[in-house]
Amino acid sequence: MTPSENELWQKITSPACEQIIRQLAGQKLHPSLPPLSKTLPKNSLLYAWCQQQAFWRKRSWPRFPQAATWFWTETLLQQASDWQTALYKASLIPAGELVHDLCCGIGVDAIALSQQHPVIAIDRDPLASYLTAANHFWHTTDPITSQSSAKYAFDVRCADVTQILDDVSGWVHVDPDRRPGDKRTTSVDLMEPSLEALLVLREATTGGIIKLAPASDVSEDWTDACSRAWVGDRRHCRQQLLLWGIPDLPAPNRYAISLNSMGTVATYSGQVLDDFDTTTEVGSYICDFHPSVRASQLTASLAQDLGLSPLGDITGYLTTDSQPHHPLVVPYRVLATIAWDEKKVKRLLREYEVGSIVVKKRGCRGLDPNRLQNSLISKSGDKNSVLLLAEIGRKQIAILAEGTIAETVADES
User: Which pLDDT tens digit goes with each residue over 349-388?
Assistant: First the structure.
């Protein structure tokens, strides 16, 4: 950074601007700082930067605790791990072990790791390195007294990771840049550093975690020696992890993992199956499943283990006559099944006295669940139901269903 850029960011990350950002973002003012006595002129450049930080902070809240202090840039926010996944990854490495966090970005993974480990965080971008240190300060230090609550050493270095790979030992976490040239990529060859360049770490370290895009594919050189885990919450598969030396996820295996806000972890391990039986008949239960199961290509394996059948094909819902019990499966009790016709579906909803409905779909091109969720609402009914739209061959069907206790629990994850 230039001296003027460094001066600007020092002001943005200062206690005075932190209170202004919190006020603009609608956060509670920082408890360790005095209330605002005055604010910046609204036509000043620094006030505009505080507004931008408040905007990014609010945008981060689905993935980060609303009460926390984070300083962002747009690109580094897009690249960052969500806080829940970062904490989970940190828990996989034995507590107290030194961890090198390479390509640390804004410092989310490094700060999560620092709760249980001494950390050396490294990034070639001077601004990313600066903000990693600033974010760690605001997570661990009283801004008035400068008294730190950090349990472990935390060192931030600005360096080209590719130049220091031979010097890394112990434990490592790597988040390669997947936006070379500002374009997102799932290719492990186009990442910086590439997966081939990172091979030296697998040979020289005790264990490690490499963060990849969920759709990234890796060679047998890696899959034979490492585990692959797809991790997310109930709505998204956030990232794929390539792991070695991790006691809880031994290699070589494939895992689908769900995390929830209460810290509960649900895991399924299986194999990719090429041969599986499907059905065209809807059973007593129709089942959705966690996005990480689909991303890891373990749908058929999970279905086989639980006695479920893919409806139509492996990309659709699962069905069965007996209620399944698994934290990665969301079962619904089937009430009725008809061929898709909006008018007929409306009559069906009136018949079952449905007043509010959640619409889900698999396939069914041309059908918009958001529009249907509004257009299918009936003022005459008082029951809550779920409408699942599916395809069998080229035929679109509508399945009216109700939730189960198991569905409620799984949906919270």
Answer: 999 999 889 999 998 989 999 999 888 887 778 889 999 9
Residue 372 structure tokens: 């249907």
Question: How do 119-123 and 154-158 pair as beta strands?
Answer: parallel
Instruction: Report d(CA 310, CA 304) in Å as an integer.
Output: 10
Residue 66, helix vs strand vs coil: coil
Cα(27)–Cα(6) distance, integer angstroms: 26
pLDDT at 183: 67
pLDDT tens digits, 167-210? 999 999 999 987 766 667 778 887 899 999 999 999 899 999 99
Instruction: Find, among 25, 18, 60, the residue nearest to 40 by Cα.
Output: 18
Q: How far apart are CA 289 and CA 261, in angstroms?
A: 18
Q: How far is CA 143 from the centre of its chain?
A: 30
> In which element (H, E) is residue 299 found?
helix 299-306
- Output the CA–CA distances (angstroms, integers) from residue 141 to 18, 34, 147, 158, 262, in the order listed: 14, 16, 6, 22, 26
